[in-house]
Each structure stands twice: as structure tokens, then as C-alpha cells.
């Protein structure tokens, strides 16, 4: 059988491997960690660094097509693989998504096509640029200073209120390339998953509403009425336009802010994009007839992309390492039996052995025949597990 390859061994790779195997594909994972979630379940595990030329050659040799599952994969490695094999998404688009400066420039460039723009921002790469912002762009305060590269889950970000805060924050972040973004009054956040094939065929999921706690996704609400329909349509159209403008192949997630009505942004602002399936799309595994990982497999393998249909309302609760510790800091296994006794609960654990605060260990999706029932069960599950961020009213 044909083999599909993944650069990276995290949980996104693991769920991709599961989806590929269901269609009869063999899989190969290149990942240095011996105990990685994806490496553990793949037919082949090439245990080496992401930029090791020998490992990359081995991966290309084994595979019909190759994808990546984490944001900070060296874009050069994708380029090397692309010399001999189809790689999706490509090195160029991954490079754009890895750099907030390039990413925002792309959003600005396709604002006409997408109908959305990003939060007001300024680039700070040099002391002179910092000084210019301090002198001329106080309209961006209060704001968030974000490193251009390598940030995720709110890491590499400092909230700044004053010019003094900003100058100190840039030093604190190491004086590396950053963007200063104006702090917007968010009323909600959402994201949209788009799948695009080599032939340009595009499919998408309806927007999911996301709740973040301390910069990390905590809860995803995926059901009709999770946000105003006009905004949902705009977000979906914008994400498709952004994917098309990139010539993207594979699954792309675009994150949006919803801001208070009457603002200059017309209610919707694009935040960032992830060139891969996304944590906020995990509900698609249990609530849709094709998941985000199925789309990624189809896109890579050159198969037609199914337009997914959501058959059940769903809420996803992220399970971070905290859940594995009691109030006194003792490690203990959560009471899964109590959770799984609740109707419509689907538990996904990623096979990670060491639980640490903030580490993504698994997720729980709740599905059911109606939204009210799903919310009620999600409330009970969140209480049992001590989870934050569930604002189900
Ligand atoms: P991810 O893990 O999603 O890649 P990240 O580290 O790249 O996260 P962002 O998405 O830039 O971080 O920001 C994390 C969260 O911080 C957002 O989801 C939002 O809740 C908040 N946030 C970021 N930028 C702004 C802003 N300009 N105004 C208000 N809130 C913001
Ligand atoms: Mg990000
Ligand atoms: Mg984000």
C-alpha cells in the first residue's frame, strides 16, 4: 500500500495517522522523540531531527506525499522534501504562517478579497523601529507585543499598557523581531477550517467559537447558533479567500476575533492562521461525517475532498496537564469512568506520559441530539474534571 509521511510526532500527527490508516495507507513519521504520540502509532518512525538530510531522504523514499503537523517545522526541510515528493502545505506558505510579520502582510494584501483585515499593528525589529513606535504609534497602546516567530499558546507575548511597558517588554523578549498589536475589545473568538486540494477544490467547516484561558484554547463551541449567522458567513468566506490567495494545499485553520459592534473593523478581525489541522477542529472527529484529518489525508493523497457535514452539535473541552493533579499538587489519574458515564462523551488521549501544566494531553468532545443537552453534559464534565472556560450560560 501507499505510504503518507508526516514531519513531526505530536497529537496532530497521531490523529492524521489514524485517519490515514483507516483509508488503508501506511504512514511514516519523522520525529526525534522516541515516545511521541504519532511515532508510537505509525508504521514507520524515523527517529531523527527534523532537518537531518539522511532522515528526510529516508522519509521521501518511503512516502507518496508528505505533510507537517507542527508550526515550527523548519521550512527548509519541507523544501528539501518537495524536491522529490509532493509536500502539502508547501514550504512557502508554512514560512508565511511561521512569521507574524509576513502573515500580517499577507492578510493586508488580501483584505479586499477576504473582506477582513487584522488588528492595527507595527513591526518592531530594531531599536530605531521601537523608538519610532514609542514616538508615533501610541494609538497601538494598550497592546500586545508578540514575537514574530516561534510563539504559540500565548508564549512569546507580553501585554503592554504604556510606552515604558513596551520598551521593557521588547528587552524582555530578547530584542528579537516582534509585532506590536493593538489590544482589541473582543466579544468572542472563532476559527474556520478550510481544506483545499491540488486541483483547487475547496471545502470548509462552519466556524467554531473558541474560548481561550491564559492564551491557550480551553473550549470550542461547534453548533448552529454559536455565533451570529452573518458573522459566521463572513468568517467562512474570508478563510476560503485567504486559503485561495495562498494557493494553499491541505487543511488550513484561520483564527478570527469578533469585536464589539460599531467598531471600525465591522465586527470581524483576522488574528492568525495555522498551516495544518487545528486544536479547535478536534470536534470534527466525533461530530462530522468527515474530520479535519480526513480532509488532510484526502488532500495529500490527491483524492476528492468531501464537503463535511456536521451531524451533531458539539462542545470540545481541552484536557491540559493540570487535570492530572489534585488540589494539593499530587498526581492522579482523572476519574474517566465518571466522565464517560455521561451521555455523548468522547475521550481522546494522546498517549503522553508526563503531564505538565499547559501541556495538551487530550480532549473531550460532547455530542448529542440538541444544543441544550450538549451544554448540560459539558457543564457536568467540566465540573468533574475541574476545567475552566466553560461559559455555557
Ligand atoms: P496559538 O496557540 O493559537 O497559535 P498564539 O500564541 O499564536 O496562539 P495569539 O493567537 O496571537 O497567540 O493570541 C492568543 C490569545 O490572546 C488570542 O486567542 C486572544 O485571546 C488573545 N489576543 C491576542 N491578540 C489580541 C489582541 N490584539 N486583542 C485582544 N486579545 C488578543
Ligand atoms: Mg499562533
Ligand atoms: Mg492563536
TrEMBL record:
Protein encoded by which gene: purK
Gene Ontology MF terms: 5-(carboxyamino)imidazole ribonucleotide synthase activity
Name used for this protein in its record: N5-carboxyaminoimidazole ribonucleotide synthase
Species in which this protein is naturally found: Hymenobacter monticola
Residue ranges constituting the ATP-grasp domain according to the UniProt record: 108-301
Role: Catalyzes the ATP-dependent conversion of 5-aminoimidazole ribonucleotide (AIR) and HCO(3)(-) to N5-carboxyaminoimidazole ribonucleotide (N5-CAIR). Catalyzes the ATP-dependent conversion of 5-aminoimidazole ribonucleotide (AIR) and HCO(3)- to N5-carboxyaminoimidazole ribonucleotide (N5-CAIR).
Assembly description: Homodimer.
Pathway: Purine metabolism; IMP biosynthesis via de novo pathway; 5-amino-1-(5-phospho-D-ribosyl)imidazole-4-carboxylate from 5-amino-1-(5-phospho-D-ribosyl)imidazole (N5-CAIR route): step 1/2
Family: Belongs to the PurK/PurT family.
Amino acid at each position: 500500500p501507499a505510504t503518507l509521511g508526516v514531519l513531526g510526532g505530536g497529537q496532530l500527527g497521531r490523529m492524521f495517522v489514524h485517519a490515514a490508516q483507516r483509508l488503508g495507507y501506511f504512514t511514516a513519521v519523522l520525529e526525534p522523540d522516541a515516545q511521541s504520540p504519532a511515532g508510537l502509532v505509525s508504521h514507520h518512525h524515523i527517529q531523527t531531527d527534523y532537518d537531518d538530510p539522511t532522515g528526510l531522504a529516508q522519509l521521501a523514499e518511503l512516502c507518496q506525499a508528505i505533510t507537517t503537523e507542527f508550526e515550527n517545522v523548519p521550512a527548509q526541510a519541507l523544501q528539501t522534501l518537495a524536491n522529490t515528493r509532493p509536500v502539502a502545505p508547501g514550504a512557502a506558505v508554512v514560512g508565511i504562517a511561521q512569521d507574524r510579520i509576513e502573515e500580517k502582510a499577507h492578510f493586508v494584501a488580501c483584505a479586499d478579497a477576504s473582506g477582513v483585515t487584522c488588528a492595527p499593528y507595527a513591526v518592531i525589529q530594531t531599536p530605531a523601529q521601537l523608538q519610532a513606535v514609542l514616538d508615533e504609534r501610541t494609538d497601538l497602546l494598550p497592546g500586545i507585543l508578540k514575537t514574530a516567530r516561534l510563539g504559540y499558546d500565548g508564549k512569546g507575548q507580553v501585554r503592554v499598557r504604556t510606552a515604558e511597558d513596551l520598551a521593557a517588554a521588547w528587552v524582555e523578549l530578547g530584542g528579537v523581531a516582534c509585532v506590536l498589536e493593538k489590544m482589541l475589545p473582543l466579544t468572542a473568538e472563532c476559527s474556520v477550517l478550510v481544506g483545499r486540494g491540488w486541483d483547487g477544490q475547496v471545502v470548509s467547516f462552519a466556524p467554531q467559537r473558541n474560548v481561550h484561558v491564559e492564551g491557550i484554547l480551553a473550549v470550542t463551541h461547534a453548533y448552529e447558533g454559536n455565533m451570529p449567522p452573518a458573522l459566521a458567513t463572513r468568517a467562512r468566506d474570508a478563510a476560503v479567500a485567504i486559503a485561495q490567495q495562498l494557493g494553499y494545499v491541505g487543511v488550513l485553520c484561520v483564527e478570527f476575533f469578533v469585536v464589539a459592534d460599531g467598531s471600525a473593523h465591522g465586527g470581524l478581525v483576522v488574528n492568525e492562521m495555522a498551516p495544518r489541522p487545528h486544536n479547535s477542529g478536534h470536534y470534527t472527529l466525533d461530530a462530522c461525517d468527515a474530520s479535519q484529518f480526513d480532509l488532510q489525508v484526502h488532500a495529500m493523497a490527491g483524492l476528492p475532498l468531501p464537503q463535511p457535514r456536521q451531524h451533531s452539535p458539539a462542545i470540545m473541552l481541552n484536557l491540559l496537564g493540570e487535570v492530572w493533579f489534585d488540589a494539593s499538587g499530587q498526581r492522579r489519574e482523572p476519574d474517566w469512568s465518571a466522565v464517560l458515564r455521561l451521555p455523548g462523551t468522547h475521550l481522546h488521549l494522546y498517549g503522553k506520559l508526563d503531564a505538565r501544566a499547559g501541556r495538551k494531553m487530550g480532549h473531550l468532545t460532547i455530542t448529542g441530539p440538541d444544543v441544550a443537552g450538549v451544554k448540560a453534559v459539558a457543564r457536568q464534565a467540566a465540573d468533574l474534571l475541574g476545567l475552566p472556560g466553560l461559559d455555557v450560560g
